[in-house]
Amino acid sequence: MESVAKKCLQKELKKLMDEGAEGFTVKLLSEENIFEWEVGIFGPPQTLYEGGYFKLLMRFPANYPFSPPTVSFLTRMWHPNVYENGEICISILHPAGDDPHSGEPASERWNPAQSVQSVIVSVISLLNEPNTFSPANVDASVMYRKWKESKGENNDYVEYVRKIVSESQEEAARDGVKVPLTTEEYIATKRSSLNRNNVEDTDFGTGFATDDDYGYDEDDDESEGETLSETADSGNGDS
């Protein structure tokens, strides 16, 4: 099952590098480990997190994509749905199946059709659309609701987030990362990502592992698809 996960992740990584990504960047923490990714997301324009640069750690299980990754912020974050240790609480990261106590419909939970990109996009959307009914950080949730209910008169939440954004900008400067500040610049991050990755596949240009490092062969795509289909149909993600 681990070989299936490696091939899936290698294909997703290559796709993101070949096509670029709007609003975020990805890289492996180590060339030798396809199961740990570092993601850099940019705060969306016209939101409280605008101008921010936030690092995420994504860890993938050996039976990916049948089980979801775990995702946590490496950058300090203040948000109703982010625990103090950086772990993110969001439906798409919860295992598939019905849980009557969660209040989440099964359709919002993880399924093997999801991808790295869909998870990251969900996290970016969560920044501006927190769920205060099931908070991971109660203090942040209370502060957020006071801000919304006061129609902006109580802006403690805004000030706290601005402090977080300012700290993240300092980290971006240390990393040599240019943070988009306008909608046009934000959209252009996909093009700049694509330009950075438009290099020979032998090294991906940024220290990424190659297909051969993980035994990936495009000729395996058809047989790999059959393996995934058969496993999904069986309802058992174990090898």
Automatic annotation (TrEMBL):
This protein's name: Ubiquitin-conjugating enzyme E2 R2
Residues of the active site: 89
Composition bias, Acidic residues: 210-227
SMART domains recorded: UBCc
Source domain of life: Eukaryota
Ranges for region Disordered: 190-239
UniProt similarity note: Belongs to the ubiquitin-conjugating enzyme family.
CDD domains cross-referenced by the UniProt entry: UBCc_UBE2R
InterPro entries hit by this protein: Ub_conjugating_enzyme, UBC, UBQ-conjugating_AS, UBQ-conjugating_enzyme/RWD
UBC core domain span: 4-170
Keywords from the named record: ATP-binding, Nucleotide-binding, Transferase, Ubl conjugation pathway
Species the sequence originates in: Galendromus occidentalis
A GO MF term: transferase activity
